[in-house]
Amino acid sequence: MPRARTVAVLLLVLTVGQLAVATFVPTLPQFEGKAFGSRLVAYPVLMLLLPAVFALARRRSRPGSPDPLPWAAFAWVMVPFLVDVTGNTFDLYDTVTWWDDANHFVNWFFLSLGCGLLLAAGGVAPRWALGLCVAGLGALLAIGWELGEWFTFIRHGTELDTAYTDTLGDEVLGCLGAAVAALVVIMQKRPVPAPGEPTADVSA
Q1: pTM, full prediction
Q2: Each residue's pLDDT tens digit in the chain (204 positions)?
Q3: Is 64 left (phi over 0), alpha (psi -120 to 50) or beta?
Q4: Cβ count near 42 (within 10 Å)
Q5: HSE-CB of 50 using CA atoms within 13 angstroms
Q6: With the C-alpha atoms ordered 139, 143, 149, 155, is the resulting torsion angle positive or negative?
Q7: 108 three-state secondary structure
Q8: What DSSP assignment string belongs to 9-58?
């Protein structure tokens, strides 16, 4: 199994394992009121969505193609889900004041980097257009994420009083992370490796 695909599988397993604990061990206080039953379904689906779409498209357009799927890009898209769940497992959202803010910036950098690598591999050009696509997609995903949080647990939770300010800040940080990822993608001269790999092809 190529190393990037191994990394992606490991990210999925670690994420689902922690989600299962959060869902089926309800006595742990750090998971209370955070819709982990919904996350147990949604996170694996979202993590596997891009690989499934790419595999299906490859099968239809180029059946029998020996070219590997872009697992390094998929792995970067998967990283934020593991970071989010791990932050909850160790109760970092409630015990480290800056964790939530840092999480939105860094996770949107990872997510947008993965998406940007896929767009670059798909031939989006020129560079300025690629950068705008990456930053714009990251901004849309940041807005969508906040809408999802509102619907699943904020509107009926304990954070309603500060939700407006917190949501605006999270969206700004997510957009900034996406903008930095856009710069990295358009400035790269060699493929970005998967998380944990010193060097690797995007399609490794």
Answers
A1: 0.85
A2: 579 999 999 999 999 999 999 888 877 877 776 778 888 999 999 999 999 999 998 888 888 777 789 999 999 999 999 999 999 899 998 899 999 999 999 999 999 999 999 999 888 989 999 999 999 999 999 999 888 777 766 666 556 666 667 788 899 999 999 999 999 999 986 667 778 776 544 444
A3: left
A4: 15
A5: 20
A6: positive
A7: helix
A8: HHHHHHHHHHHHHHHH-TT-GGGTTS-HHHHHHHHHHHHHHHHHHHHHHH
Residue 114, Cβ density class (10 Å: 0-12 exposed, 13-18 middle, ≥19 buried): buried
Say which DSSP state 67 is in: P
The full set of domain ranges for the chain reads 3-61+68-187
List the Cα angle 108/110/111 in 5-degree steps. Answer: 60
Q: How far is CA 73 from CA 27, 34, 117, 196, 203, in A?
A: 36, 28, 6, 13, 8
Name 131's Cβ contacts closer than 8 Å, sequence gap at least 6.
Answer: 182, 183, 185, 186
CA distances from 34 to 61, 131, 159 (A): 41, 34, 11
- The span from the CA of 81 to the CA of 83, in Å, is 5
